[in-house]
Write a structure and sequence with these properties.
By secondary structure, the protein is an alpha+beta fold. It is built from 27 helices and 16 strands. Strands 1-2-3-4-5 form a five-stranded antiparallel beta sheet, sandwiched between helices. A five-stranded mixed beta sheet has the order 13-12-14-15-16, with helices on both faces.
Length: about 625
């Protein structure tokens, strides 16, 4: 194992945790036969190819090849290491993990993350206490009251107040016997005169005299903070920096509270500010999340796909809002997620609009919000005009947007729509779009946020396998899906005859950690250190045809003793034929006095004998 966590503890976590429950918090799953399916959170798709098996406690995507168990899902989804994923689930299900079983470096890495999370929660309580109880918090209490924020919303979102002064929090942390280096890693305090060559070892508080918004992930952990001033000071908003527990490009404010409402409504509103979100939630529009001082990313959109089918971007009716929509369009289209854009009347943001007009007019506007492509076409036409130069400018603006679409039918339809709107030749418009689509195909990361589009390394899809490797993969799949065959494979020393040494190693791991009778391979997965090996095994367990060399939907095959014996006999016959062929080739080389070829063939013969243990 790569991490020294006892197998009995891993088994205890597997027994208590339900992979469907955990994944459904991040992916919208539907029952599909005995398994569950949904849109893959790891690549762009419109048709669900992501499958989760409750019986096997496994997931696998037949589109990109991502697969594994509950631990590997948390690792890939939340960017954790294995030990961190184990502790995350252990904490969630109340299971104690003995740290003495880990190496010193592992304990230190995990300890730092755990200490930051624990510190963040204490700091959240400190800020909340400053808002509710301290005399200094009166100014913040009056500010929130003036903005119309109810006590219910304050409590629900755990709002707080960072007192004025340079070291209020620093002194609180010092009294808590927390090392300042840890608080600095958490982004809570900053070294004095950092970067100016000053040797002063003191620290000052990052957040001062601000309303504090704790940033909480879907697992309920406090991973960071946002702060807003109550006057015209700059910057108006300040967020935690990137830390071992906080990644703003993957995090959306309020998702921990909004996710269930997003699923119920099948759509989500995306706003840009903390108070915009609080105002909408207070007025009953609870399927709302906010970005955290950063542009919307592909990771954000993929996270939202787990909770809603449609999104509505709510922007101010100014140049910045329109530019934000333009930046966001290729991301939504590249991720095949429906998005519309709602612009509010000039002078309004979501906060002021719902407080002045109430939720009904807001929701009515959402019903008539334009789709993001039509919105951008309308705006481009208004900007460029209807002259020849203007129409050329509109096409130049919109072609990259339509070219980002992964659906060729949608791309063609929108090309026709654009040509019709501006009165241009449809073929010329389509040609321009194809140019942009070609550029995207040569550099897909531009629109996909750094995620590959095709099957992942190790999925096996598209591999040209020889006959021997194909049947060797079939045997590995048989061992996983029909564990009763393992005894016969061991008795006949089948793995010793494998030509693919990598598959042989996986087979040996299966022998040491065989699947249970009902197909649970979690113990095996925990002992596969290589991520590609985990994906391959997950694919075979879930029936990934590509990962088995195009042998068909193995998941649909009903393994019986007769069919298993037939596969083993076919494999042995192939080995015998190869052995006889090698003997014939050696004799032919001897007759031709080709000593170099004889040497090569004899070396191959020795390797064959070593693999098989017999001639």
């Amino acid at each position: 194992m790569a991490f020294h966590i006892p197998d009995d503890k891993l088994a205890e976590i597997r027994n208590k945790a339900d992979i469907v429950e955990v994944i459904s918090e991040r992916v919208m799953l539907k029952k599909s036969g005995k398994d569950y399916s949904g849109l893959c959170p790891f690549h762009a798709e419109k048709t669900p190819s992501f499958s989760v098996s409750q019986d096997k406690q496994m997931y696998y995507c037949f589109g990109c090849g991502a697969g594994g168990d509950i631990f590997s899902f948390i690792m890939k989804s939340d960017g954790m290491k294995f030990s961190e994923a184990v502790l995350f689930l252990a904490r969630r299900y109340g299971i104690d993990i003995p740290s003495r079983e880990m190496t010193r470096s592992q304990r230190e890495a995990i300890s730092k993350r755990e200490k930051i999370l624990a510190l963040n929660r204490r700091v959240m309580d400190f800020y909340a206490g400053s808002l509710v109880r301290s005399p200094a918090g009166e100014i913040a209490r009056q500010y929130l009251k003036k903005r119309g924020i109810s006590q219910k919303i304050i409590d629900r979102f755990k709002l707080g107040f960072a007192p004025d002064g340079w070291d209020r929090l620093s002194r609180f942390i010092a009294r808590s016997d927390v090392k300042p280096e840890l608080a600095e890693s958490a982004g809570l305090i900053v070294p004095r005169n950092a970067g100016r060559g000053n040797t002063d070892n003191g620290y000052y508080d990052r957040f001062r005299n601000r309303i504090i918004f704790p940033i909480i992930d879907v697992g309920g952990q406090v991973i960071g903070f946002g702060g807003r001033v109550m006057d015209d000071s700059k910057p108006k908003y300040l967020n935690s920096p990137e830390t071992p527990v906080y990644n703003k490009s993957k995090t959306l404010y309020g998702l921990d509270i909004a996710r269930n409402k997003c699923r119920q409504a099948a759509m989500v509103f995306i706003v840009e500010g903390y108070f915009d979100l609080l105002a909408l939630h207070q007025h009953g529009i609870e399927n709302t999340v906010a970005t955290l001082g950063t542009a919307l990313t592909a990771a954000h959109v993929r996270r939202l796909k787990g909770y809603a089918k449609k999104t509505c971007l709510v922007f101010d009716a100014d140049t910045a809002g329109i530019k934000a929509a333009q930046r966001s369009a290729p991301i939504f289209l590249g991720e095949s997620m429906t998005a519309s854009v709602m612009l509010l009347p000039e002078g309004h943001d979501p906060d002021s609009f719902v407080f002045e007009h109430g939720p009904e007019p807001f929701l009515a506007r959402a019903q008539t919000a334009e789709g993001i492509v039509k919105f951008l076409i309308t705006r481009a036409m208004a900007s460029h005009g209807n002259s020849i130069e203007g129409r050329v400018g509109v096409v130049a603006d919109i072609a990259p947007v339509i070219g980002a679409m992964t659906d060729s039918v949608a791309r063609s339809e929108y090309a026709g729509y654009l040509a019709d709107r501006i009165g241009a030749d449809p073929n010329a418009v389509m040609e321009k779009i194809r140019e942009n689509s070609g550029r995207m195909a040569s550099n897909p990361e531009t629109y996909r946020g750094g995620y590959g589009l095709g099957p992942e390394k190790g999925s096996g899809a598209g591999q040209d396998l020889t006959g021997s490797r194909r049947i060797e993969r079939m045997i590995i799949a048989m061992m996983i899906q029909h564990p009763a065959s393992i005894a016969d494979i061991v008795q006949k020393e089948i793995l010793e005859m494998f030509t693919d040494l990598h598959l042989k190693e996986i087979g040996q791991e299966i022998v040491k950690f065989p699947p249970s009778a009902h197909g649970d391979i979690s113990l095996l997965m925990n002992h596969l250190e290589d991520e590609d090996d985990q994906r391959l095994v997950a694919s075979m367990a879930m029936g990934g045809a590509g990962a088995m060399g195009g042998l068909g939907a193995m998941g649909e095959m009903r393994w019986k003793e007769k069919s298993c014996n037939r596969i083993i006999e076919q494999f042995l016959a192939g080995c015998s034929k190869k052995s006889n062929d090698l003997v014939c080739r050696i004799r032919a080389a001897e007759e031709n006095n080709d000593h170099e070829l004889i040497r090569q063939l004899l070396t191959e013969k020795q390797a064959q004998i070593k693999r098989r243990g017999r001639f």
